[in-house]
Amino acid sequence: MCSLPEKDRPIVQLLLNAGTCPRCVLRFCRVGSQMLYRHPHKDLMKDLQDFLRKDPEKEDPVGVDVADPPCKRIRLEQAAEGPDGLNHNGALPQVPVVEDGNAAVEGSAGRVCNVCLGILQDFCEADFVKKVCQKVNSADYQFRSFVFSVSLPPQLSVRERAAWLGLKQQMRNLGLSLAKEDIVQLKEAYKWIIHPQLSEELGVPADGKGLFEVSVVFAHPETDEECHFLATACPDCFKPAKNKQSVFTRMAVIKALEKIKEEDFLKHFPCPPSSPKNPCDALEIQCNNSAVFVAGRYNKYSRNLPQTPWIIDGERKLESSVEELISEHLMAQFKADSFNFSSSGREDVDVRTLGNGRPFAMELVNPHRIHFTAEEMKGLQQAINSSSDKIQVRDLQLVTREAIGRMKEGEEEKTKTYSALIWTDKAIQREDIAFLDDIKELRLEQKTPLRVLHRRPLAVRCRLIHTMSSQYLDEHHFRLHLKTQAGTYIKEFVHGDFGRTKPNIGSLLNRTADILELDVESVDVDWPPTL
Description:
Blueprint: H1 9-18, H2 22-28, H3 34-37, H4 41-53, E1 73-75, H5 101-109, H6 126-139, E2 147-151, H7 155-173, E3 182-184, H8 186-202, E4 212-219, H9 228-233, H10 250-259, H11 262-268, E5 281-289, E6 292-300, E7 311-312, E8 315-316, H12 322-334, E9 338-343, E10 352-365, H13 374-387, E11 391-399, H14 401-408, E12 415-424, H15 430-434, E13 440-447, E14 460-474, E15 477-485, H16 490-495, E16 501-502, H17 505-509, E17 513-523
Parallel strand pairs: 2-4, 10-17
Antiparallel strand pairs: 1-3, 4-5, 6-10, 6-11, 7-8, 9-10, 12-15, 12-17, 13-14, 13-16, 14-15
């Protein structure tokens, strides 16, 4: 099954005697053939037993059957002795032969591995694979491939270091040296074993760039405290973080192991490590689909509807919002956990959005359904539109995360057109407002309006009114059509906001002016594409 070179005989023997599982033995022997790890545990143990029984004087050592070198590896240390396990005479020293070929094997076979804590034992078997797949299938996700991720207890890194140092010491006692080579990472070996089993059971390929993630979180409470000595030896590596329950994260432990001196490690931790009573626990089996993004344009016809939920001091002011009227249907159809709504600007609660509407996008987090045809998206749009007379949606479509950036690109350079119904305190005639039509590129200085000062920083913003067109209605009312730079506060341009916007319609007309109604007639953002 697997042929190891003679120089690996002491590694196999010492590891099996210490209670290491056969797959971890292969990792320490730098075996990079994925297929070998997939052989049954018992077969691998028997194969290693046969290898130890083999008489090195009668049989020529055979090179390791390696398909490809491992992709991710842990760098091992260089021993002081000569290269490639040779003694000072250039010959391979004799290793004590195991008197009973079954002794080391049987002693290791019934124990939980002292290095991987059972990860490469029971958790590679068909029963566990079926358990994972049952969890995936019961969650009812749509996916065409999957990426498999594993979260391992941080103490595994400590045990792997201890196994390596113990092996290094004992081989030195035999007059052998260890070449500076790489052992196969535990995660890598585990994925080599588990990927084909999951693929067969789920009926889709494993793909490192897949959008659907299946993750398993392992824990081993019995050995949780094994990392604690590192905090004393390397306190700088363990700093509390707000989003971490423990300072003993995998990365912190690895950092400490790189920093701690070999002699200090040996004082605090047994090398090789002892076998635990129990294997790891699979704490969680989780599924997650990458977010899906839906975009479109909305019209708002109500003057009593906010864009997003209007809640002040925990109290809801209005029963619904544009965001909720749209998200209610998308959440139900995509079966998502949550959503994030964004748009090209926003209108006040009493402002209508007409014309082609305002571009918006919605990120649907962890959706269970992700595949929709153009006809299904059209049906979803119709469902939104028939559910309320306050809004309408158009051009509803699936987009990429990158495409959403186009909605925000150069936002302040974009233009918007408005229609405002204006009242004046003093009577006006047509000729009093006619001059407004001739004003082009009027530059405003707008201090942050009083009405939004509680949520926006105080600043003076320069904005442009590109064109204006007036429509006389009666002595105290006229309608003003404006084309402006995006981000202009139109209400404040009309009434002046107690002099915080200069100039303003009141100052231009030399009378008090106020705005009664405001409509957004167009948002000149060429996105999303018209369907």
